[in-house]
What does this fold into?
Amino acid sequence: MLTLYYSPRACSMASHVALEEAGAIFEAKKVDIFTGEQRKSDYLAINPRAKVPALRFDDGRVLTESTAILGWIGTAYPDRNMLGVDPVDQAQTIAMCAWLSGTVHPAFGQFVHPERLVADPSAHSALKAEAKATFWRYLQELDARLSGRPWIMGNQFTVADPYALVFYPWGRELGLPIKQLANLNVMKDRLIERPSARRALEREQSVLLSMLPDHLPAENIPHAGP
Ligand SMILES: N[C@@H](CCC(=O)N[C@@H](CS)C(=O)NCC(=O)O)C(=O)O
It folds into this structure.
């Protein structure tokens, strides 16, 4: 059986949701990165880089990197159409995942771990300020993409949707005014309403399930939220 290694509050949420949406039969194994489980020998045998997500196949092979895992899910379950219709659409979905992984995620990392970039502590507050401003611009870009369309790639739900939502609560962790991201918030509610996606979010006890649509005036709130 497939095994997904994930941690709550981590980017592995995208792979977790995508596997449920694909209808895959898999085991979800929690590796809590906030208590250091990713650095224990058991998990290092799966991914020596000590990162989630990792996807282990029946034959023992392991796939890491969110973009690769999401791309594999989209290709392995083509009837779910989670990459897009034609090869260009599919490549554009992968391009979005690559941007989330290679550009958006590292901006957050620069805020949380400036010491990984520059050892000198006197540089850290400037690095953090720059990272926060950059991360905010990326969240705004994602929000703008959702203007007038339900999903990140247009009318079709793709693997890029749960991936984009990984970064929405991270914005709150950085103290950013995510209430302003009305389109992302509505997309989050749309995702939560999908039974398969919700199964993964509930298993993770995802923070997304407790984020109310509080950017809206009270009279416009369609439901109180979970
Ligand atoms: N490029 C990787 C990044 C994976 C990654 O950074 N995962 C984080 C969680 S979001 C992690 O496992 N961090 C544990 C650590 O750095 O100790 C991907 O896109 O999958």
